[in-house]
Amino acid sequence: MHTERNADANHLLSNHETNHYHTPSASEIFLRTFRSGPGIPSGPISRSKEGESRVLVLYTGGTIGMMKDDKKAYVPIPNAFEKYIRRIPYMHDEEYVGTRLSATEKSKFLVLPEMTDKTRVLYHIQEYSQLLDSSNMAMDSWIQIALDIQKSYEAYDGFVILHGTDTLAYTASALSFMFENLGKTVIVTGSQIPVFESRSDGRDNILGALVLAGNYVIPEVTVFFRNNLFRGNRTMKKSTDAFFAFDSPNMPPIAKIGINIEVNAQAIFRPSTIEKFRVHPTLNPNVGLLRLFPNITIQAVRAFFQPPIEGVVLQTYGAGNIPSNRIDLMEELKAASRRGILIINCTQCIEGSVCSTYETGMILAQAGIIPGVDMTPEAALTKLSYVLSKTDWDLNTKRELMQRNLRGELSSGQDGSTKPSRMLTNYGLITKEDQAELESVILPACIIQNVIEGNIPELEDLKNSGADFSSENGDFRTPLHIACCEGNLEMVEYLLLNGACIHMKDRYGITPLLDAIHFDNHDIIKLLMKCGAHLPLAHSRNVGEELCSAAAKGSLKRLQSFQFAGADLSQPDFSGNTALHIIYVEGARPTQYMDCFNKVHVSSEMYSPKYRSQ
Ligand SMILES: NC(=O)C[C@H](N)C(=O)O
Q1: 610: Cβ contacts below 8 Å, ≥ 6 apart
Q2: What is the per-residue pLDDT for 422?
Q3: CA angle, 366 then 368 then 373, to 5°
Q4: Which atom of ligand 1 is nearest to the CA of 167?
Q5: Where are the alpha helices (DSSP H) in 217-270?
Q6: Best mutation site among 69, 75, 166 for ligand 1, i.e. most ligand atoms within 8 A of its Cβ?
Q7: How far is the CA of 165 from the centre of ligand 1 (A)?
Q8: What is the predicted pLDDT for the residue at 473?
Q9: Complex ipTM
């Protein structure tokens, strides 16, 4: 859109090309620097990050690990997958393991070789005792996967689920609902040809999934297939034999792997609550998918709506239409809805949404059938199963939630368009091209500046312009890192409610929680803990060092910071001393610190000089 200001800016720019005496304005400097300045690469830049990330791979079965049995049919083979992967040099760096990992870690972890990506990805493959073709998987399998991730949630940075492709879209959709307040990356992948065969898509799929899960915080259940990362509850299996077997027809991929990894930050479904991650471990099995077809008999429909059914996804024609001349059918649907059965209207088309454009669609909405918008049948069915299993929600709440966008599974009416921020407009940078080129450079810097200044109204404006509050600066530091150092509790709360991820690490492996600890911002530490922040496990030795150093300096405040962050205060430093030893040696009265240590088992041994001298 051209406005007067924009016209001014263009005028200034064209003037500049002809007028040598013109002094460039700030907007021109921005444009010249970032639009065509030398040395500005066109794609994302690879930056290296210190340290390692840990990914848990849950291997549930599927073609990826199958071989042919004596009847020449593919079946999953136990205890073969990891052995095979360990022998592939691009999947496992034996040398690194030999020199860097402890004896117990060596047998547990595989490690990806050094790449241009940010961290070394260590991964542990947990093979299920009963490997399944995904056609044999059902709700109990989804619950088991969810609980396994919950059990290991704090020990890993990200999760990869190896799964058969046939029912993968159901599993990914179900997990997306069962994971409440998810803060880490969960990727489901599989393959069309087993990894053991020379021409397999499985090796690339697992490699890509590991690189993404180990380097990016994408707090969603996603599906990685053939270089594309899709939102899990938007996916469907679209091909029985192509390597490009999955697609998300109503949503572009969240990330694409090519020479560069391109993550579409705008597409990520960000957190907007201050709550800890938890798993909702039950699902209601009394749900079904009913696909209409011309001449469907009323007996078939009636049989479908018999108890114990509680929820039905009705797959209708086109934009959500049903034969309006079938009075018997409409009466049956109305009666079922009156009995409290939730009926969701989803299209049989692969792409698009249901709406009330036609009389044949409008009658369904009028009969109390819930519009499923653009949900896939897999998403609608698993969402129904999740919603119906909530015992503390009444029927109206369940009806309402089926229409609400819970995990990015349906388009909520906003077209995703953004308006230019006041800041860019003030500089006259308001054309679409200006925005696109500059937002990746200017918006993150503006966010950080406003975070430092505590300017929430300005951040609101930037948010409406599409600013991403999880964006990283050159050192991978996010607005939340900065706010935690600044000690502005209100700002931290604002960021957490508006898409900031608590688990993002900067170049040196520092999380926002560690920043809040280093600045002894106790209220912020408590708020982050409420949101599910935790100390990185790989940091435990350093925590011992820091505790001892705090004790040596007599910093009760720092010890309390670690206490509020859930640290084990009896953790030793590299020489085996604990903070309590140091306090004792320094001659401070231990009672002064007792409030901090009351949860620590203080044995007389821990005080003894004998222990200290070891
Ligand atoms: N490609 C595959 O993984 C198909 C297999 N039948 C499964 O779903 O387990």
Answers
A1: none
A2: 64
A3: 90
A4: 8
A5: none
A6: 166
A7: 5
A8: 87
A9: 0.98
- Is residue 63 part of the annotated active site? The answer reads yes
Contact 53, 157 (CB under 8 A): yes
Tokens representing residue 379 in the block: 């998403």
In angstroms, what is the span from residue 59 Cα to ligand 1's centroid? 13
Q: 313 to each of 284, 337, 468, how far by Cα in Å?
A: 14, 12, 35
Q: Could you tell me if 416 and 425 are in contact, meaning their C-beta atoms sit under 8 angstroms apart?
A: no
What pLDDT shows up at residue 574?
A: 86
Of the candidates 483, 477, 480, 444, which has an alpha carbon nearest to the alpha carbon of residue 462? 444
Per annotation, catalytic residue among 63, 119, 316, 511:
63
Q: Find the largest Cα–Cα distance for the chain.
A: 91
The encoded tokens of residue 78 equal 């136990």
Atom of ligand 1 nearest to the CA of 61: 9
Of 69, 75, 165, 193, best ligand 1 pocket probe by most atoms within 8 Å of the beta carbon:
165
Could you identify the residue written with the tokens 């998810």? 182
Q: What is the C-alpha R_g of the chain? A: 28
Beta bridge partners of 75: 67
Burial class of residue 209 in the structure, from the number of CB atoms within 10 Å of its CB (0-12 exposed, 13-18 middle, 19+ buried): buried
Atom of ligand 1 lying closest to residue 190 CA: 3
pTM of the model: 0.88
Q: Which domains does the chain have, with CATH numbers?
A: 52-279 (3.40.50.1170), 287-403 (3.40.50.40), 422-530 (1.25.40.20), 537-613 (1.25.40)
Phi, psi of 68 (to 5 degrees): -80, 135
Who's near 458: CB < 8 A, 6+ residues apart?
A: 422, 423, 446, 450
pLDDT attached to residue 517: 97
- Which residues does the chain have with pLDDT short of 70? 1-50, 116-118, 413-439, 538-541, 586-614
Q: Which residue among the candidates 165, 316, 382, 511 is catalytic per the annotation?
A: 165
Cα distance between residue 204 and residue 90, in whole Å: 10
Q: What does the block give as tokens for 366?
A: 């009028």
